Each structure stands twice: as structure tokens, then as C-alpha cells.
Amino acid sequence: MIATKLSEKLLDKAGARTTIITGLLVGAAGMAVLAAGMSPGGGYIALLPGIVLLALGQGLGWTAMFTAAGTGVDAQHQGISSAMASTTQQIGSAAGLAVLVAIANSGTHATTGPDLVPGLRTAGFTAAALTLLGILIAAALHTSKTGDNTDTGTDAPQQDKTTKIPA
């Protein structure tokens, strides 16, 4: 909730590309901190900093992603735009989780206990590295050609600059 509000402010000041990249950086840092905090004898307190950073990164990035997906889209196509963004996010999450579970389980036959921690850490660091690759995609977003210094992430001109897209 906090990151969503921060994302709204950052979107207004810096645009979609910068907000998405910031969210990805914070999220990748959170995933790396979370992975580093995993240990066979560790507790939840060791994981909390990573969880908080990860949540902040997701709140920043997802809000900006959905804003960018709907910016410049005709009103009658907003539902389709939102659905495509949601579908992409859900499919990416499912496929990413499958890959990370395969990484976490590689090299071990354990199903519970401390033997799982090294694989989980590897999967966490892999997720952080893959999140950083998302920055390359975000950097490739096109800027608005409306001349208003608003980075919307699309080439389509904004239809009404006074209309705010809900976060």
C-alpha cells in the first residue's frame, strides 16, 4: 500500500520508465536480501528486511506497469489493455515460479528441512538476477511523443492530460 502511493508520486514526477526501473531495482535488492537471509537455523526476523524490500519493489513496479499498459489506450479498449497486462503478469509469475522451483530442487532429494536451504538461496539469487534483466526491457520502453516530459511507456499520444489513471 505504501509503495503504491509512492509509485503514484514517482509516476507524476519521473514517468513510467523510471518508476518501473526503480521498482525492479528495489525488488531485485529485496530478493537478494531475502535469499541472503535464508539459513538452516535462521528465523523469520532474518527474512523480514528482504520481504519488505521485495514488497516495496513490487508495489512500485506493478503500479507503474499497469499505468503504462493503460496510458494512451482508447477508453473502449482499457479493459483489454488491463487484461493483457494482468495475463502477462500471471503467466510470467507461473512460468517464473516453475523455473525457480526447478532451480531450488536441483541437486537435492530432500523435501523438507535444512537440506533445502542452499537450493532456495540459489533460486532467490537467480530471481534477483532475472529481475535485473527486466531493467533492459523497461529501458526499451518508448517515451511519449506529446512533448510534455511525461514518460508513459508508449508511443501513443495521451488523449486527455487532465485524466488521471487510477493506481
What descriptive keywords fit this protein?
167 residues, mainly alpha, 5 helices, 0% strand
Description:
This protein has helices at residues 2-14, 16-37, 44-70, 78-105, 117-139. With 167 residues, the chain is mainly α. It is elongated, with a radius of gyration of 18 Å. Mean pLDDT is 85; it is low at 145-167.
What order do the helices and strands come in, and which of them pair?
Elements: H1 2-14, H2 16-37, H3 44-70, H4 78-105, H5 117-139
Helix pairs in contact: 1-2, 1-3, 2-3, 2-5, 3-4, 4-5
Q: Count of helical segments?
A: 5
Taking all Cα atoms into account, the compactness measure Rg is 18 Å
Number of strand segments: 0
What about the largest sheet? none
Summarize the entry for a quick read.
This protein has 167 residues and is mostly helical. The protein is built from 5 helices and no strands.
